[in-house]
Amino acid sequence: MMNDNTLKAIELLRRLVETPSVSRQEDNAANLMAHTMTRCGFQPVRLKNNVWTTAPGFSPHRPTLLLNAHLDTVKPVASWSRDPYVCTIEGDRLYGLGSNDCGGGLVSLWQTFTVLAQRPQPYNLLFLASAEEEVSGADGIRAVLPALPPVQLAIVGEPTGMQPAVAERGLMVLDLTAHGQSGHAARGEGVNALYIANDDINFLRQYRFERISEFLGPTMVNVTMIQAGTQHNVVPDVCTMVADVRTNELYDNEEVLHFLQGRLKSEVKARSVHLRSSRIALTHPVIARLTAEGMHPFGSPTLSDQALMPFASFKWGPGESSRSHTADEFITLSEIENAVDTYLRMLDGTPIT
User: Fold this and answer.
1) How many whole angstroms separate alpha carbon 278 and alpha carbon 66?
2) Are strands 124-130 and 298-300 parallel, antiparallel or unpaired?
3) What are φ and ψ of residue 175, in 5° steps?
4) What SS3 state is found at 45?
5) CA 339 to CA 318: how far, in whole Å?
6) CA separation for the pair 225, 43 (Å, rounded)
7) Surface-to-core class of residue 215, CB atoms within 10 Å of its CB (0-12 exposed, 13-18 middle, 19+ buried)
8) Helical ranges in the chain per DSSP H
């Protein structure tokens, strides 16, 4: 028999699944969360489609714990065998778009917040349901952070199997442009931009960044797109490429960018550098407690709103990352029950600094 906390979390998750909230279209889901906060006796604050609230008794003399998960989902893929916007429970599984990423973490953290807020804690408690996480949008958590009080620790409710992800890879997308000179292919004239690009691709394939992370491994660069040429008998004078860069916490995105700009023949431009890798120390009191309780810290290859947080943070939530963005996405009821119980057991009365 599921306890009352689990039942409340599942009911909210059902309503969220049945409220479409694709990135940049989270209005109704934000309305639902704001209504839920009000109904539970809290005062919601809303900025665009981000909604947050603070537990009573906020004091600037105490550290602040942020509980965060995102409202938005990706678009459903064509291979769903059921309606992605109908919450279906079959046995222990709850099916629906966003149930695993990141609805399960959102409702589990919300239910945890409502319980912890009723008890004296050694920290201020802040809950944030953020928007545009799946697209790293400017109107998501980036817009909210300046409006929040100072935060000492954040728990991001991404699906991690309730194991603490203490490190997360950063992301940088690079546009590479090789410049050559056009000519007639029959006479071998010109400077072939494809060959310049090929030299750069070979360099990127072979180069190994020296600093290896304990949890994330090496910084990786993969060329994922390439385009050149107008017709078969014209030597191409331009070749464009896109490279996906996944940094570990031992490299700033800017450092990698400047290095590649100095080593490649192609012009190198970053679309942005703000999605940074992160790491929280294993000696942090919360991480130390989770480890002492038998949990296993690990490094996460996937990106989240954590990349934008300038304070200590880690990912810790129900569900499995392998289910995210898949057809017939699901989370189990027992995962939600375990998440709420574990959050309460580990966070109730625990110092966060």
Assistant:
1) 16
2) unpaired
3) -100, 120
4) strand
5) 6
6) 47
7) middle
8) 4-17, 27-39, 104-116, 141-144, 193-206, 253-263, 285-292, 333-347
- Torsion region of 178: left, alpha or beta (phi above 0 gives left; psi -120 to 50 gives alpha): beta
Helix (H, G, I), strand (E, B) or coil at 323: helix
Taking the C-alpha atoms of residue 8 and residue 112, their distance in angstroms, rounded to an integer, is 11
Neighbours of 13 (CB within 10 A): 25
Contact by Cβ (8 Å): 138, 275: no
Per-residue pLDDT, averaged over 141-150, amounts to: 97
- Which tokens belong to 167? 């490190």
Structure-token match 């291979």, residue found: 79
Q: pLDDT per residue over 11-70, tens digit each?
A: 999 999 999 999 999 999 999 999 999 999 999 999 999 999 999 999 999 999 999 999
Q: Which amino acid is at 36?
A: T
pLDDT digits (tens, 9 = 90+) for 213-270: 999 999 999 999 999 999 999 999 999 999 999 999 999 999 999 999 999 999 999 9
Predicted TM-score (pTM) of the model is: 0.94
- Cα gap 305→238, rounded to integer Å: 36
Question: In the sheet that 238-246 helps form, which strands lie side by side, from edge to edge?
Answer: 220-228, 238-246, 172-179, 267-270
Can you tell me the mean pLDDT for 78-92?
97
Average pLDDT over residues 275-286: 96
As to burial, measured by CB atoms within 10 angstroms (0-12 exposed, 13-18 middle, 19+ buried), residue 142 is: middle
Token pair for 154:
């954040």
**Concatenated DSSP letters for 73-101?**
BPPPPTT-SS-TTS-EEETTEEESTTIII
Strand, coil or helix: 348:
coil
Q: Which residues pair with 242 in a beta bridge?
A: 175, 225
Torsion 324-105-286-315 (CA) sign: positive
